[in-house]
Amino acid sequence: MKILAALAFSLLALPAWAQQYPLKPVRIIVPFAPGGGSDFIARFMARRLTETLGSSVLVENKPGAGGVLGIEIGVKSPADGYTLTLIASSYTVNPSVYKLNFDPVGDITPIIQLSQGPLLVVANPALPVKTIKELIALAKAKPGAVNFASSGQGSVIHLATELFDSMAGSKMNHIPYKGTGPALTDTISGQTNVLFSSTAAAMPHVKSGRLRAIAVTTAKRIPALPEIPTIAESGLPGYDVTLWHGLIGPKGLPRTIVERINGDVTKALTLKETADQLQNDGVAPAGGTPEQFAAQIKMEIGIWRKVAADAGVKAE
Q: End-to-end distance of the chain based on CA atoms, in angstroms?
């Protein structure tokens, strides 16, 4: 009886709007430009949540400063469940390279991780390496001679490659670009030699033969490219970098709303249609509890802080 009474009291203590959520359209802020992988995942989940929440879920793109501008809008919005923010794994890199106007751990309410997938290590076919061991050997034999491209100074691609260099004891030369597209173009042309690319962007070029796939960065191989080994199994045990997307709200988002959204998203992630759609981009559904997502964010922020400090990485 005491438990039931406590539960009833806790429900009564919630504002009426939280108990009846949602009473109006919900927006998901995407801190990147339209058309990319983050935008695709946000719009896919918005359609699903529109069906399950019984209210329109709209996507608003707010790009700028590596995603920082849009995220700041989201975390400083009212904690009423009507403004959610889609974040990517770059969220945990940003505190290491940008001066933020919010606490990336304390000023958010993690809701759920949506997707997970690897970076794909690709090389220009002219580079005389077909395996991670060969790449490490070449980079060690000729320090600074192997040029690796990235999507920008201080990007997750940049730091993932710096982590690789650090663990391998090698030294490649960083060539930053403004986005994955230009980095891929110059790796294909031979202006740069290696790129840790998003899987979706690189796969068409691997299939056409313009790039050679060497490894994936996750601890396990992926269904989309089962023949491509992981870095960890290819000579660098313990290396594990995952790209992901997730949903967060502002600090103080009521638990009932967090659980409602987490539950609805979890159901969507179990659908075969969801897995099929995500696999086209070389990623898989994630899921999990808000607490698991919070722990993942906190852990990765710590990892990337050390990598950035050791490599002397700063945003331009």
A: 61
